[in-house]
Amino acid sequence: MSEHVIEISNLSRRFGKKQALSDVSLSVPEGCVFGLVGENGAGKTTLLKHVLGFLKPQQGSVRVFGLDPVADPPGVLGRIGHLSENRDLPAWMTVRELIEFTRAFYPKWDPVYAEELRMMFELSLNQKVPTLSRGQLARAGLLVALAHRPPLLVLDEPSSGLDPVVRKDILDAIIRTVVEEGRTVLFSSHLLDEVQRVSDRIAILDQGKLLLTSPLDEVLVSHYQLTIRFLEPQPFFPQLTGALMWSGSGREWKIVCNGQKQELESELELMEAEILDQTAPTLEEIFVARMKSAQRASAQE
Ligand code: ATP
Fold first, then answer.
1. 15 CA to middle of ligand 1, Å?
2. Which atom of ligand 1 is nearest to the CA of 49?
């Protein structure tokens, strides 16, 4: 088997006039926690649906465990635990029935682990699915996605609907178990602090285009935030190599930058500007900076 559990090459998808995915290529190595981020409508769910074989690539290819998920649904879906964006669980079932029903599909179902998860998620066996709150629905969906110990978990916004305290405990517990066992997680989220906390690799999607895919460490070290002071007040921010986003006015500005710092430092020296402070931006600050920079570039096209 390939060491990449998922390989996506030049994937494009259009819905009518809407280009939901545009020439996206990325791979997810085995044992990795891969966070997919992007604004609403960026194409995250569409990408996950291709991984699951629910959508057929219009262009490009998708391989999961080396297989085509559209051509071989049992070979792929049997090895994936999936939590969908709208948690579509059968409405007429109780939690007990949901567990028993799902168990029947998976020979590797682990009843002891399922019960551990049910206790951790505080789900009552007799509660009916339609009476579950959004947070409880997410937990029930996670339970049935996890309890057959799949080698790959595909989670669409797993924390959506969970309150912040529970969210941290649950997501951390899941990810720890899964990764300790050498399994792989691909999840989408718009909670950047959460993505930063648990991911090994990330991808940023913007209007269907891949802005970046990289190990998280590399993303964090290749971006930096500077506070700079110019000799004279600047009516607008000057063009500087690698500057993605800036805020401030007059002489003092804060910038988020990417890439080689030397070139930027020489430019600042020529302008007689001094660096007052340098800090490491969070993933959220990097994300916002990359989005702003992409928006500026597309406005100029
Ligand atoms: P969100 O964070 O809001 O869930 P997302 O990043 O998951 O967004 P997608 O759901 O993949 O984004 O949608 C990408 C784009 O494709 C959106 O503009 C959406 O309206 C459009 N789209 C997705 N599915 C369909 C469909 N079945 N028919 C028409 N348009 C669709």
1. 9
2. 11
In which band, very low, low, confident or very high, does the pLDDT at 133 lie, cut at 50, 70 and 90?
Answer: confident
Q: Which domain holds residue 288?
A: 220-300
Do the domain assignments include residue 213? no
Within-domain flag for 63: yes
Q: Which residues line ligand 1 (CB under 6 A)?
A: 15, 18, 20, 38, 40-46, 85
pLDDT value, residue 300: 76
Whether the per-residue pLDDT at 169 is higher than 80: the answer is no
CB 207 within 8 A of CB 42: yes
| Residue 85 CA to ligand 1 centre (angstroms) | 11
Do 55 and 153 have their domain in common?
yes
N-to-C CA span, the chain:
42
Pairing of β 223-234 and β 243-258: antiparallel
User: Of all atoms in ligand 1, which is nearest to the CA of residue 205?
Assistant: 6
Residue 110's domain is classified under what CATH number? 3.40.50.300
Q: Where are the alpha helices (DSSP H) in 186-279?
A: 192-198, 216-221, 261-270
Domain end point (choices 207, 240, 272): 207
Q: With residue 11 as reference, give the H or E element that holds it.
A: strand 4-15
Pocket test for ligand 1, best of 14, 37, 44, 54 (most atoms within 8 A of CB): 44
pLDDT in tens, 40-76: 999 999 999 999 999 999 999 999 999 999 999 988 9
Model pLDDT, residue 8: 98
Q: Do 27 and 156 have their domain in common?
A: yes
Work out the percent of the chain whose per-residue pLDDT is above 70.
99
* Cα 59 → chain centroid: 22
- Per-residue pLDDT, 2: 52
